[in-house]
Structures are given as structure tokens and as C-alpha cells.
């Protein structure tokens, strides 16, 4: 492996991971972190250096989790073969676009999630809600980062729409090409901290990574005039070293985010509807034409909105369908 001066703690090692390693494993293996996922190989880094290894774990069952970016692995000191994936603090995943019966892992062991959206016609409250559900489900602190503020007539309009999703949500507006504009995001990127970027294609994630790294090494492409979006440039899930010692985990843009096992996250993001629904006359109220529906009453009086209600029901229906598919798979 290529030599590096980084310690395990600088790579994000926590007591959580150390507690999982047995004395025998300490003698036979060393821990590495997955820094990038490529087709057929993974880039890893540890106290002994960095390099590429195969993601295949000998003896692993097809149903076992495979390494994803941000994971910690134990690697055999003699063979450089991965032995096992250490238990994760958290895991971001979605239903696979190619096969909705399967899950696709996105990133593991994240401290903060930057949910990236742009201040233009591509801005979508519904999409932000989906990412927030994902963050709440796995217990990771979310920060909404609105890019391309320099191109918007009034970026505060977009910020207000994002803040209205839930009380206390942290929302930052930035010009990704201006180091001074993105500098205040660095407070989440201290030594050993891992920040993941999630957002749809073309919202300026690569530009934001360059701004935080004070580098232009990641390719970016111009915005399309017809719809205000940039072109997708990130092709692999990869961790980037930041100036203040943290790690920025970039992921390919996702137009489609089908949630998986996200019931708790949906309930947390839409807790205003959950709370009101407890006052419905019937415990199994579908919030349609049933008498005594507190949700419909709240919508009628304006304390809840029908648009947000429709998004809540859509996500809940997707979660129900996902649970039904999982039950069918395990029978």
C-alpha cells in the first residue's frame, strides 16, 4: 500500500469500531476505511497507507452486506484480503433503480448530511423532504445547502421554502465558486468528521466540493439554459480530504430516490400530520371521506396544506409497498 501519514482517528475511527475488534483480530488484521467504490475494486486507507483491494470477502453469503464508501473493514495483514465489514454507525441506502426488490447502499458512517439543492427552477420541496426522511431514518444531522445563490434574483425565497419543511432545519445558501461563501460550512468538517453530499444531478455538488477543498480538481460542467441544471459529473462514490481535516463524501447525483425501510424517518419529517391524525375519530382513518377526520379538518382550516398531505401519503404508500415486497422476499 502507498505510504500515508494519516492516523486512524484522522480517517474517522471511533471507539464504536474499536470495541468490535477481538484480540485475535488485532493480531491478524488491520482496519482500513473505504474511500471510494469502483467497479470490481475499492480504494482504502489506513494507518499503514492507502491502495486498492478487491471488495470480495471470502466466505461471505450473497445476503451479506458488501463494502460501501465510508465503511471500515478488517483486512488480513498477510493477504490484503478483506475479512469483514465492521458494524456501521449508520447506513444510507435506497431501493435499487434497476430492481426495486433490492437495496442499493449509498454511504456509511456519516456525521453530517449536506442535502444539496439549487436556487433555480430545479428546486423541489418534495425532493428535499425525501432526503430529510433518509437523514432522520438513520439519525444523521441534516443541513440543507442551497447552491447557485449568485444566480438567483432572490435566494431567500428558496431558503424560506426549505426552512418551512420542519422547525429548526438548518439551511445555508452559498455560491460554490466563492471560497468565502462556502467557508462557514467548514464548521461541520473538522478533523475526523465525515460529511456526505446528497442531491440530484446538476445541483452543483462537484463545484461545492471544489470550493470546500479549495481546489478545482473535480470536473464540473456548465448549467443548461433550458432547465437551469448542471450536467452530472460525479461517477463514483468517493471521499475527499478537506483542508480542516474532515472528509467530504461525494455521491453521484440521483434524480430518483426511492426510500427503503424509512417509516420512522417519514413519521419524524411529517410529525405535524402524525400528531393531528391522533385526533381522528377512527384509529384506522385513511384521511379521505371518513367522518371526524382531524387531518382533513386541519387542511380545511389552513393549519396543514393539501400539497404537503399528498406528499406525506405518497411517501407512506411507497413505504407500505416496500415493506410488502420485503415480506414477500423473506417468505
From TrEMBL:
Its EC number is 3.6.1.-. Its cofactor is Zn(2+). One of its GO terms (cellular component) is cytoplasm. It is an enzyme of class 3 (hydrolase). Zn(2+) binds at residues 280, 285, 287, 293. It is found in: Cytoplasm. SUPFAM superfamilies: P-loop containing nucleoside triphosphate hydrolases (SSF52540). GO terms for biological process: ribosomal small subunit biogenesis. Transmembrane segments: none annotated. InterPro entries: G_CP_dom (IPR030378), P-loop_NTPase (IPR027417), Ribosome_biogen_GTPase_RsgA (IPR004881), RsgA_GTPase_dom (IPR010914). GTP binds at residues 147-150, 199-207. GO terms for molecular function: GTP binding; GTPase activity; metal ion binding; rRNA binding. PROSITE patterns: ENGC_GTPASE, G_CP. Monomer. Associates with 30S ribosomal subunit, binds 16S rRNA. Belongs to the TRAFAC class YlqF/YawG GTPase family. RsgA subfamily. One of several proteins that assist in the late maturation steps of the functional core of the 30S ribosomal subunit. Helps release RbfA from mature subunits. May play a role in the assembly of ribosomal proteins into the subunit. Circularly permuted GTPase that catalyzes slow GTP hydrolysis, GTPase activity is stimulated by the 30S ribosomal subunit. This is Small ribosomal subunit biogenesis GTPase RsgA. It comes from Sphingopyxis witflariensis. The lineage of its organism: Bacteria, Pseudomonadati, Pseudomonadota, Alphaproteobacteria, Sphingomonadales. The gene is rsgA.
